[in-house]
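Budget justification aside, the reviewers requested a transparent look at the raw inputs and outputs of the sequence design task funded under Objective 1. We therefore reproduce one unedited record. The lines immediately below are the structure tokens for a 221-residue chain.
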């Protein structure tokens, strides 16, 4: 359900923003899969702003859940940039900014999640359209994750395929015991300009570790 706190958000972009046709995500899917996406999702992932420009999404955190092992994992990976949620608050604002990166041909992502008390959590990452799956996400200290993209019941789904460490031009795969398990991110269209983002981390031995979902709309950057 779309949060009432989002109903007044504008879906327009600043007048100076130049929109380009983006086929980077489209190239990672078959024609059949791409055709199963809702029109709003198709448009969202086909729209590219000029290098250095940004798109901003404003939302509200709907759900957060941690197992005991998941909570400790989220604290531990703060050593490499804190790529996982660390707070349990719901009903708090979340802002995601996606900026085109001319140097890599990819995107830089900044996620800001408010807390009911204390400073917000800020997560930085970079997406590059490279590697064995065609899509990689980098966090801190050279740690990266290869992602596979698929369409499941009209939901755009990103799943971790491998984790690695970038040392100069060398990419070193991380052994499974050094990884958090399987990470899944979904993008579900809710209609009327809203969509839901979910993040799940599941370990083959410890089961479900972390779950977070938030409802977003595109806003003026």
């Amino acid at each position: 359900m779309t949060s009432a706190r989002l109903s007044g958000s504008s879906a327009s972009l600043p007048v100076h923003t130049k929109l380009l046709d983006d086929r980077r995500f489209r190239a990672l899917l078959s024609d059949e899969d791409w055709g199963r996406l809702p029109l709003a999702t198709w448009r969202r992932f086909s729209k590219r702003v000029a290098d250095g420009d940004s798109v901003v999404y404003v939302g509200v955190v709907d759900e957060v859940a941690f197992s005991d092992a998941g909570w400790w994992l989220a604290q531990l990976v703060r050593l490499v940039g804190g790529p996982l949620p660390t707070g349990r608050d719901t009903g708090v604002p979340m802002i995601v900014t996606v900026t085109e990166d001319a140097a890599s041909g990819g995107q830089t992502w900044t996620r800001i999640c408010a807390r009911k008390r204390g400073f917000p959590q800020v997560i930085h990452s970079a997406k590059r359209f490279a590697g064995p799956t065609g899509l990689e996400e980098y966090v801190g200290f050279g740690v990266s994750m290869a992602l596979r993209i698929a369409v499941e019941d009209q939901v755009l789904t990103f799943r971790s395929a491998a984790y690695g460490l970038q040392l100069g031009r060398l990419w070193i795969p991380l052994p499974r015991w050094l990884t958090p398990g399987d990470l899944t991110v979904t993008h579900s269209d809710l209609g009327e300009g809203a969509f839901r983002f979910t993040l799940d981390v599941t370990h083959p031995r410890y089961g479900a570790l972390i779950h977070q979902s938030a409802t977003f709309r595109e806003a003026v950057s």
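Confidence is low (pLDDT under 50) at residues 1-12. The chain has one domain: 19-218. Computational costs for records of this kind are itemized in the attached budget.
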